[in-house]
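retry 2 of 3: previous attempt timed out while embedding S-adenosyl-L-homocysteine. Reduced batch size to 1 and resubmitted. Inputs unchanged:
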Amino acid sequence: MEDMTIHEIDFALINEFFVELERQGPGSPKETIRALSFIRGLSDRTRIADLGCGTGFQTAVLAQNTEAMITALDLSPDSVGRLNAKAERLGLQDRVKGIVGSMDDLPFRDEQFDIIWSEGAIANIGFERGLAHWKRFLKKGGYVAVTYETWFTEERPAEIEKWWTDAVPEISTMARNISIMQRTGYIPVAVFALPESCWTENYFLPQKARQEEFLKKHAGNRGAENMIAFLKREAELYSKYKSYYGYVFYVGRKHC
Ligand code: SAH
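retry 2 succeeded.
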């Protein structure tokens, strides 16, 4: 059977599945902090936008490792609700505010932010399109920091090439993505690949129990069964082909 693609899965189902998990994409606090370490001039006047924030795992890491004011934005009202509840629980509600909105039509003022952050989300609107759209919302010399699916080699086995090209048609190499950053008006500051544990321990492993629970709850629902099959296949392909691709952190500085 042909693999189904992520675009054939209902957004509401994906959302219902992932909203219960601590994070919705590969990553780790250590890598978020590593990306943050390349950014100069952080203070209590720093303004950060965290786009495609999900339930706010990395938002909390940013809040706990800076004194910044953070606006976190996601398309999913459920995720934003969880993020705001989490901020409250952690006593961060004065500095962290979650809002519902779309990354490709930001409800912000020009030059409102010092930093635009986005982990595991920019592919939803396109790497080039996202970077180009976001630039005007950054102050002069402001930073962008995003993680994005990236090929590690110039060529890949056909099976994995097809899977990722279906999911993220623009998926490319680090060299090409650095060039896109430059073209869209940023000076590349740091580029590094996330370690495997960001996928295995922090993304695939916590899904296992949730998959079983989800299948029970949605017994007989073809859409839900297909989605779980898709997620299992994603994990299988990762263990087979992880030397060919991964998430890469791209940190850039707005070019005047
Ligand atoms: N940053 C989080 C979530 C990544 S999952 C983490 O790393 O754990 C991707 C997120 O992008 C989801 O929460 C999804 O709801 C959100 N998303 C997808 N399309 C979007 C859009 N157009 N605008 C804003 N958020 C979007």
